[in-house]
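User: I'll paste a sequence; please echo it back and then give the predicted structure.

Assistant: Echoing your sequence first, then the prediction.
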Amino acid sequence: MSLAFQLLARLPLWLLHSAGAILGWLVFLLSPTYRKRFLDNTAQSGLAASQWRPAVAAAGRLTLELPRLWLGRSVPIQWQGAELVEEAQAQGRGVVFITPHLGCFEIAAQAYAQRFGPTHPMTALYRPARQPWLADLEARVRKRPGLRPAPTTLAGVKLMLQALKAGHCVGLLPDQVPPLHQGIWAPFFGKPAYTMTLSARLAQQTGAVTLMAWGERLSWGRGYVVHVLPYLAPETVPGDAAVVQLNQALEALVRQHPGQYLWGYARYKSPRRDGGD
């Protein structure tokens, strides 16, 4: 499989995205389990089919763009809101980037590492793949100048705390279902979803600035736009209310860009004791 990744990494982005769109629809049509979860999640959102339908193809693009992003040449990246990062760094404060399953979340960390990593490296929380070959590949390609991966373990959380206290940056996917006892149930599109408390705790313990960031996937393989958005400081919100606020902010962002959200993700599942995803 690693050879296939290397071959795909050489292809132009427009071709990968075109093939990915076909892949997304094939999986949607041929997998009843995936299709049901996808449709259940979109029905829960109350959005019209015309709003979420492009996300079927987007899920396939997400899959086929990975080889290029991990192993291939760099891709065009634009920024909107980079001044928010610069302001936090000028104050000597760390930054907690919360990036939902929206657009290309892989590119957000890479783009940060390229632009800010030399002086303020990012520690990014990730959950290793279950397949040994893919877990090994992830460990190798995600570790690059200005970017340090941190596993979803206590050791990984400690790495993130150290980075923030040094005035650096951490990144995580706040709508990823956390391990048992590391989250609370909070509404997401009106339905309880087990939601991590980690992002709020990191900001509260270190005084870091919390920002939302996501990578918009442009059409025809033209690259990506990394959007950085302000976020209400979690330390101003008491207790579990910070998690409710988080889901409300994520929901609002998804409503603005439903065609790039990963609706097939099992957002409402129960947490596993081992933290598996």
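The chain has eleven helices and nine strands. The mean pLDDT is 91.
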